[in-house]
Design goal:
With 457 residues, the chain is of the alpha/beta class. It is built from 19 helices and 15 strands. The structure holds pyridoxal-5'-phosphate (PLP).
Length: 457
Amino acid sequence: MAKQIPYKIYLEEDEMPKAWYNYRADMKNKPAPLLNPATGAPVTHDDLAHVFCDELVDQELDNTTPYIPIPDEIRKFYNMYRPSPLVRAYCLEEKLQTPAKIYYKFEGNNTSGSHKLNSAIAQAYYAKKQGLKGVTTETGAGQWGTALSMACAYFGLDCHVFMVKCSYEQKPFRREVMRTYGAEVTPSPSDTTEIGRKILAEHPGTTGSLGCAISEAVEAATSREGYRYVLGSVLNQVLLHQTIIGLEAKAALDKYGVKADVVIGCAGGGSNLGGLIAPFIGEKLRGENDYRIIAVEPASCPSFTRGTFAYDFCDTGKVCPLSKMYTLGCDFIPSPNHAGGLRYHGMSPILSQLYHDGYIEATTVKQTEVFDAAVKFARVEGILPAPESSHAIKAAIDEALRCKETGKEETIVFGLTGTGYFDMYAYQAYNDNQMSDYIPTDEELAKYREQLPKIGG
Ligand SMILES: *Cc1c(COP(=O)(O)O)cnc(C)c1O
């Protein structure tokens, strides 16, 4: 007889995954190689090694090793806040009166408040192992900077975060969490880098952008002995570390003999989605099982659904390698009224290839609908979700309502990537009925599409 499914399914320590799953090994069409922007040739290990840590470069370029052991030091840290619970959303199911069975994997149960810690601790570990002094990075909303500062504190590394100036000013508590963990936080653009001084001279009074903060962080790392740059999403290595999410979720479902039908994640740069779907997409790639996999993106930043699959720059400063991905163009910036995160112009090259090959679907949702779903969820399930995560909630609710119409008892699994305590300005706008939707027009998107670099076909 099937075991009663508890509200929360945990794994015992000895049931925890011992390796990350690199599903590039099972992809027939591998993601296209990164290109060196100066030469247009595929990047080599040496090209990347002056920017990133050595072992992370190996992981970035590894298309063939299916399982990469998680070092003991990282597993020890994971054990402090993992496994994250897989929660059966009984209360939401009842509220929706749906025959669907809804599960969510909750990654907000650590101080940084999101899944980003899973990769931050891995990247800090490899930096420490290489004998580096510290790492630099950029942060927009602040979740990545917070996660990285926690990870660096644990391994005794310097952490220098360039925080987009408007967030630095609007989210002082995020900044203070980072400083509490020992990070140096610089509002970007700043006068501490050449590129920052140039941007300030050209645009005095600018409140900054993610692309500009990336360029400053890369310069700060490459111009200092013993430092490397680290990134919180998009890259293959980040998806690899995030596979802990999906591996745990699948193990927890398997423990109770539950098979998922639909797996849903929000998609910014693609790291949580790429991590959540790992074992499911693996079975799909090997032809062992079938699942519907749905990426959910904001209607105001629709990389998958309205972008182009082409080589583009990963950053506005055009200093990073070119990546073949679904992109809106590296100069695309979502409308200022967009409050829901997931603002990146491109998408993970791995997920882009899988989407191109028909393994995953994508859908867009408007931010007012996203916050409707967030509030509905908070009131029945208790957790105050991050706006990013609420994109997945909205899609999961839609799927559950579809099941109500068809009477199908499907099992839906979605990623609840984090909590929304630092997003209360966005909730305030929603609560005050001040939130609106903006969907870019075809003409606007065409303008950026025309500016894509003419490279790599
Ligand atoms: C950063 C972030 C995301 C989006 O990033 P991905 O790389 O697409 O996963 C989603 N949810 C939360 C809570 C985040 O902090």
